[in-house]
Amino acid sequence: MKVSKTGGATPVTGGSAVRAETAYRNAAQPQPVPRAEDVATVMGIPESELTPKVRKALQQLMAEVYSLRQEVEEARQRAGYLEQLADQDSLAPVLNRRAFVRELGRMAAFEERYGAAGAVLYFDVNDLKVINDTHGHAAGDAVLKRVCEVLLRDTRASDVVGRLGGDEFGVILAQSGLDAAADKAGLLAGAIAAEEVVWEGAPLHVSVAYGVHALSGDQQADDALKAADRAMYANKRGGREES
């Protein structure tokens, strides 16, 4: 995990908001309007009746129809783009806390209905305040982006990564029991600690505490997150407890 000596982290790219923006911009591109002759053929208008006046009227009508379609599609794509932005964290291309809790509720409901195992991991970056106070908040932000990058890199497409606020992150593991989730949390924590972080020539030691909680269909998403948070604090105090 290297950060440039100028203080700029390598940008983390990707994310659903980026894809939504691309779709929105593509929708804004003008589409060709069919020729009056083609429209007449589809509508069954004999060529003998396709006078210059009728041809002009058809062309104007199709231009208006296509313009309206373009506006509707652009509005639809724009709404999707804004929805994605509302769900994305302001610092990194992962879900914000509100969207993460929503997805956690969906996973718990899925577990209740189908009996599918699932777990939530709670990560807290150790000593981020020390990094901020010593090297500045830009260095702290770079560390958070890098932690996010590792979580995204080392989880499956079916898993969900979110920033829960400040120096805390969450991961929802689909189809994962408690033991497997605890192993995965340990691997992720190890991957974060193993990365080299350098800020303006100064090495930064980055580590995380983590907690693991198995999802249950009869538990609210907020309660599951609080349980994982408690397990994380137990870990931070020196234990390795998971609930």
Defining key terms:
single chain, 243 residues, alpha+beta, four-stranded antiparallel beta sheet, two-stranded antiparallel ribbon, 8 helices, 6 strands, 13% strand, disordered N terminus
What does this structure look like?
With 243 residues, the protein is an alpha+beta fold. The chain is 54% helix and 13% strand. It contains eight helices and six strands. The strands form two sheets. A four-stranded antiparallel β-sheet has the order 2-3-1-6, with helices on both faces. A two-stranded antiparallel sheet has the order 4-5.
- Structural class by SSE content: alpha+beta
H/I helix tally: 8
How far apart the termini lie comes to: 31 Å
Considering DSSP H and I runs of 4 or more, what fraction of the residues is helical?
Answer: 40-55%
Please tally the β strands and state the result: 6
Which spans of ≥5 residues are poorly predicted at pLDDT below 50? 1-18
**Main beta sheet strand tally, sense and closure:** 4 strands, antiparallel
